[in-house]
Amino acid sequence: xxxxRSPIALLGFGLxxxxxxxxxxxxxxxxxxxxxPPGPPPRFGCQWSLDICDWxxxxxxxxxxxxxxxxxxxxxxxxxxxxxxxxxxxxxETRKAPVHDATVYVRLSSICTATGAGGSCGxxxxxxxxxxxxxxxxxxxxxxxxSCWQAGYxxxxxxxxxxxxxxxxxxxxxxxxxxxxxxxxxxxFDETESGALPDGESEKISGSNASCGRRPGVVSxxxxxxxGEGADLLLTWDDxxxxxxxxxxxxxxxxxxxxxxxGTASSGTVGLSVGALPGDQYYLVAGRNSGCGIGPKx
Length: 298
What we know:
The protein is mainly beta. It is built from three helices and 19 strands.
């Protein structure tokens, strides 16, 4: 017997089949929650917890007394913070020359928030009433450079010749603020809080932190142009963003630290006349503003 199937019947079967598929329950997909650290730990000794998706940091107690009475202990940084006295960069400005013979003690100290390693150093130098503010500033810079480089500190700006000031930086642990103290007493970290030191001279110490706002950008297109039949050289450059003025640095080698300040300028268009000095001279320029200080050298 031959059985013939009707096209209508087949069509109905197809509709029923499609309908049954459409009405079937959709499979449940469980999305996997990813819990990765948002960045580096806030300080040393912290562990990332997948259970609470957050950092767990051990309790951090103060190490020793504060460097000065106005300092407070920051448990999140695990370090002392001293208003206007500590920073990732610390500026020292000599304001009064010594009036008595004395020994000056220079001390720098911090604990690296990334590794927990301590970075402390110190040195001394003698002062007398014949020493100028420039000489005193240079003595501080020389002491930091000779006694503290192994601990990670360097003089990144030496403006002693023009403004009797310098900037020290914690290059060994750039994100960590450090304390810089000057004293005539080897047992006291800092005496500048109460004014002049017993030898009669005076420094202003101030620090800047990493979250200062907008730092100056990188300058570009540095150009040296001979002037006055080659007796002078005019250094110009393209202005950068967020710079109030510019600082020009010099060195006798292209691989030097470029900490010596050759001068300042209001803009790259005005530039700076650096003169034709004997021997090789190399120059870098950095923007500067009141909030963040000096930007990258280029």
